[in-house]
Amino acid sequence: MPTATAALEVENLTVDFKRRGTTPLRAVDDVTFTLHPGHTLALVGESGSGKSTVVRALSRLITPSEGRISLAGAERTRPAAYRSAVQMVFQDPFASLNPAHTVAHHLRRPLLVSGAATRADVDARTTSLLDSVNLTPTADIARKRPHELSGGQRQRVAIARALAPEPDVLLADEPVSMLDVSIRLEILGLLDRLKEERRLALLYVTHDLATARHFAADVMVMYRGQIVERGPSDEVILRPRHPYTQLLASAAPGAAGSRERAREARAARLAARGSRSAELREPADARDEGCRFRARCPFAMERCAQRPPVVELDGTGHASRCWLEAAPD
Ligand code: SF4
């Protein structure tokens, strides 16, 4: 269960991308959530849903159009302090490491810049970081350059580098999608252990519901910039209420239990309908307040052209943004 103290609070985050001569693209629309120490929240959705834009806004790589991001209750954190407290693990470990530098260089620099180590103890701290991500023998690894490592080893280095400034929040953006299937669970297991040991607040961004269910206590499902369903992982993934989540669950049979198989046939029909829809590839018009799933949804009705309400489904925090859950007029 999350602790009462939040590590990061995100309120009404909205990101519009201006497009010359046309309406703005709303990549993220009114997203609100909280990250807690020692707790993993998964953000799931297909490519283009806006997941990575959320991460880029949280890492301050882009400026939100609206909304508030506050670190441990303090909205106005100095940029350097915020960057140390909120670290990222990228999708592609090879691209995120400099091929010209050794592993030791990749770790020493953030240790010294953030003040987490002094020149006197930076070597010991580097060794400790490598040890913490199971990269041994540490002296050999520290001398190597990225091209001398396997994909899994490179991602471990990237994780160690993210840990160097002793962050409170880790944003893991598809951290295993470019790795061999055989080592994905190892890396996710490592992130899970580090989250527990260091009381990290972990945002796990993925399109894979099965690992989201396994590694995250809570899940948010994103579709074209909006959170359409959220709640405890088992509730959302085993008993999805939003038609889009049902579609995602049907594409990830490993995520569901045996009792959910019957739902898959219906969701497969949704998937077929979706694959024919051109709207999937169209950007979200910032002026369109209606449900963004309505072109693919078999339950779409007239009022779905209005902004759907977010309806709490029970006392567990499970909620769906859908007119199907609203009381009839
Ligand atoms: Fe379907 Fe309407 Fe619900 Fe959107 S609001 S998912 S279109 S029923």
What keywords describe this structure?
20% strand; 2 domains; three-stranded antiparallel β-sheet; alpha/beta; Rossmann fold; binds iron/sulfur cluster; 329 residues
In words, what does this structure look like?
- The protein has 329 residues and is an alpha/beta fold.
- The chain folds into two domains: 8-228, Rossmann fold (3-Layer(aba) Sandwich); 242-315, no CATH class.
- It is built from eleven helices and eleven strands.
- It has helices at 51-58, 79-85, 103-114, 122-132, 138-143, 151-163, 181-198, 209-215, 233-238, 243-250, 261-275; strands spanning 8-17, 25-35, 39-44, 66-71, 86-89, 169-173, 201-206, 218-223, 226-232, 310-312, 319-321.
- It has an eight-stranded mixed β-sheet, sandwiched between helices. Strands 2-1-4 form a three-stranded antiparallel β-sheet, with helices on one face.
- Strand 10 (310-312) and strand 11 (319-321) form a beta hairpin.
- Helix 3 (103-114) packs across helix 4, helix 3 runs parallel beside helix 6 (151-163) and helix 10 (243-250) crosses helix 11.
- The longest helix is centred in the middle third of the chain and has 18 residues, at 181-198.
- The chain is elongated and about 70 Å long.
- The two termini are 37 Å apart.
- The relative contact order is 0.14.
- The structure holds iron/sulfur cluster.
- Iron/sulfur cluster is lined by residues 242-243, 291, 293-294, 297, 299-300, 304, 308, 322-324.
